[in-house]
Amino acid sequence: MSNLPVFLGREPTVAEDLKYMEYDSFAEEGPRTIGTPDPERLQRDTSHYLPGKIFLVDNCLFQIPMHYLSSESEVFLGMTEIPLPADGSAEGMSDDHPIRLDGVSKQDFRQLLKVLCPRKAYGPAAVLSFGEWTSVLKLADLWCMDAVREHAISVMSKLTVDPVEKVVVARTYHVDQWLIPAFNEILQRANTLTEHDVDRLGLSTALRLVAIRERLVQDYRGIHTLTHARQAVNLDFTSAIISELPECKNVKTHFNSWGSLTYA
After folding, report:
1. Mean pLDDT estimate for the chain
2. Which among 63, 24, 28 has a CA at the least distance from the CA of 45?
């Protein structure tokens, strides 16, 4: 029985489970050829080293059933369609001949595997931080894992996180529905923008946000007072955000059945 969560892909067949378990990566290997990894200098991941294909990410070896990846991405599905040589020397069959995943960090890959390969099918789902889910989103985008991407966005939307960080991630991975709520939170909070916030948002965006906040009228008398710190406000800045920030002009807004404004 597969550990694959019900929201991700189809259930693998028994034949698929067996296909990637028939090679024993712990069997003794012959002499290494020049240019192949030296297993003695690499580390095996302690959480994800199961019967299956062997991947090299950074300096770490992961071994997992291939169907966890191939059922979610055509990139990995294509690897399963390559005929296996009779001598079993194909990539992924041993620590000496792993499948190299260049340009990917072992930390990011490990977070993706927490979602795709839960350690116990009957146990609770992995609890990941916003940063860890960002790793999942990053690789889901890289390998066109649409179902994984949608699930990551759904979970991340419910997590409490610095709104500036949410804007950065939304821009990087094209999650446009996060932009207006995140900008609203920045405008509503008591905290002013720091230099680091300005660096991450960009000077143009930061200046536009400051300009919107300065339009806030304190009271009907038009009296201006200087306080020690900026005050939090309970005001919806959506219309001003859409008007002043070009990247939000095409974000679709609509009211759901409960009368709440949502973004898509």
Report:
1. 79
2. 63
Query: pLDDT (tens digit, 9 = 90+) per residue, 184-238?
Result: 999 999 999 999 999 999 999 999 999 998 887 655 556 666 666 778 888 889 9
CATH number, residue 31: 3.30.710.10
Q: Tell me how crowded residue 29 is: count the other CB atoms within 10 A of its CB.
A: 15
For the chain, what is the domain count?
Answer: 2
Q: Are residues 135 and 84 in the same domain?
A: yes
SS3 70: helix
Contact in structure between 215 and 240 (CB atoms under 8 Å): yes
Residues 91 and 133 in one domain: yes
Residues 104 and 209 in one domain: no
CA within 13 Å, CB half, 255: 4
CA distance 244 to 166: 19
Host domain of residue 256:
175-215+229-263
Contact 98, 61 (CB under 8 A): yes
Task: Quick: pLDDT tens for 86-142.
Answer: 666 678 888 888 999 999 999 999 999 999 987 655 566 678 999 999 999 999 999
The residues, any chain, with a CB within 8 Å of residue 147's CB and separated by 6 or more, are 7, 8, 9, 72
